[in-house]
Design brief:
eight-stranded parallel beta sheet; TIM Barrel; alpha/beta; two-stranded antiparallel sheet
């Protein structure tokens, strides 16, 4: 495992992280041995663990980590998030969002509740979860975050964009206006925007924010674990992907076979190594439901791309991988 710092901060993490989203919900498959997954991640050299009170019900994404943290607090960097009212019902049935509550007093309460569920005294990285433009521009909210930092409740501050691809204004304004050290976004080798735009903006501000890649395998089009014929049940989060969009991604992925054929990399490792070839990406968060996936993806850092491979990927990207899109993805935005 290799390690990088977030932007200009001193916060250093493993290049591959682990998210508890799959442990707290069944939206990508059922994980029976949750503690076993956490132990496997640490044993693989992963030090960056990403969670949120909105994962699962009643803050399960955080509380399931309490015992693990009590034994390994000094070995890991923990990040959790704020913004959602976890006591409120989801806006619609299924996998929709819960309402946000960005009032400064609510953020302070959310932080205290997270600390109690995690069983810790401070949070290394506190991320605004799927923030729209209003909280990014809210000076009172950011003053409250600074107070939490002054009080030693949180260390660094970041923004996690989502839930879908986009939120360009939100990301750009967070970099321009706010003291963030990280920006999390959907990014993979075949879906590089708006991640590339965020990288350029961060560089223009002294590389202040390190990027976190979410959905690095393009909903498994780049992992080799599903095929064009795979039909996801309605309960699976991947079922929300437009069918034509998935087919486009499979076509693009096929052009990248030179990254895994005869290189020693698996297909899934190649996808992660391609992201890490950009030094502005501090961390990649693959979606894992088995120990085998954790071990495979964590080992991706052992197989960095060569300069020629990086150039070849860039050339393919500039030509849309030679694919005429069936579906043009519209980037999400607050306004």
């Amino acid at each position: 495992m290799r390690y990088r710092k977030f932007g200009t901060s001193e916060l250093q993490v493993s290049e591959v992280g682990f998210g508890t989203w799959t442990l707290a919900s069944d939206w990508w498959g059922v994980v029976e041995d949750k503690r076993g997954m956490l132990d496997a991640a640490l044993n693989a050299g992963i030090t960056f663990f990403d969670t949120s009170p909105v994962y699962g019900d009643d803050g399960l994404g955080e509380s399931l980590m309490a015992d693990f943290l009590s034994k390994h607090r000094d070995e890991i960097v923990i990040t959790t998030k704020c913004g959602y009212d976890i006591s409120a019902n989801r806006k619609t049935k299924g996998q929709s969002e819960r309402p946000h509550d960005w009032r400064p007093e609510s953020i302070r309460e959310q932080c205290e509740s997270s600390l109690k569920r995690l069983g810790i005294e401070y949070i290394d990285l506190y991320q605004l979860h799927n923030a729209r433009i209003e909280p990014i521009l809210d000076d009172d909210l950011w003053a409250a975050l600074e107070d939490l930092r002054t009080d030693g409740k949180i260390g660094e501050i970041g923004v996690a964009l989502g839930p879908a691809i986009g939120w360009v204004e939100e990301g750009l304004e967070a970099i321009r206006r706010r003291p963030i050290c990280s920006l999390q976004t959907v990014y993979n080798v075949i879906e590089q925007e708006p991640g590339r735009t965020f990288v350029e903006e961060s560089i223009g501000h002294g590389s202040k924010a390190g990027m976190i890649s979410r959905v690095p395998h393009a909903s498994d089009a780049l992992s080799g674990r599903v095929t064009r014929e795979t039909v996801f049940p309605p309960s699976d989060h991947r079922s929300h992907r437009n069918r034509d969009n998935m087919l486009d991604n499979f076509d693009k992925a096929d052009t990248l076979a030179f990254l895994w054929e005869g290189t020693g990399r698996t297909r899934g490792q190649a996808a992660i190594a391609a992201i890490l070839s950009n030094p502005n990406f501090t961390n990649v968060l693959p979606t894992c439901v088995t120990v085998e996936e954790i071990d495979e993806y964590a080992a991706a850092t052992e197989f960095p791309l060569t300069p020629d491979e990086i150039d070849a990927v860039e050339a393919l990207w500039s030509q849309n991988f030679g694919v005429t899109n069936r579906y043009e993805m519209k980037l999400k935005a607050s306004r």
